[in-house]
User: Fold this.
Amino acid sequence: MTLADNNEPERGGDDMIAAEYVLGVLPNDERQGAARRIDGEPEFARLVDRWEVHLSPLAEAYPEIEAPASVKPAVDRRLFSGAAQSQAARQAGMWSSLAFWRGLAAAAIAALAIYIAVPYINPPAPVPETRLVASLAADGSDVRYLAVYDAAQGDVGLSHVSGERAAGRDFELWMIEGTNAPVSMGVIPVGSTIHLKISPELQKKLATGAVLAVSLEPSGGSPTGQPTGPVVAAGDLKNI
Assistant:
């Protein structure tokens, strides 16, 4: 089996479906079907629970970020200050007053100025960096990995689903960009969940989408800089 013929690996079994449901990468119709199965099939629900526990370490390196305290008051001012002014005007019986309409125009101009200025006074929280996922599998192989690339951390998190490396051999992760030669991303350590740091050059390429592949190599990785053993799993990176 070669890298070229692994662009569309087969996803197999309820175990993988449950994992992809937890990751949020199933197409909408499949996700709805999986949600119905969770409600009606206890065994499938247990698979989903197991994968939520199994994949949770992938997120440990990504702390929650709270919005600045100034955001809510700014939103409240935008939403409610105009409504409060209008209510006060109605109570004072000023709807027919020329002075009211002039004041309202002035208030509208002031509100517009605030609307323009607030983003600079209270800048919004930064937009999260790109996060991509891939389900790595291949026909005729029992090796399965789930990969999560997080641009903010500059690493790829790998969750080992199934399949074992042969004695004296290692799994190695590769990035394939179009028709270019595969680029090694490193030997995959033994473990159920691991993280591989990625060089800035490869991060730029991963952010635009790429194929990840796992090959079986001699202990310590490929001696040639290119895959020498069979490709045992592969898959496309996709946006979460």
Notes: The beta strands are 131-136, 144-150, 155-162, 169-176, 183-187, 193-197, 211-218, 231-236, 238-239.
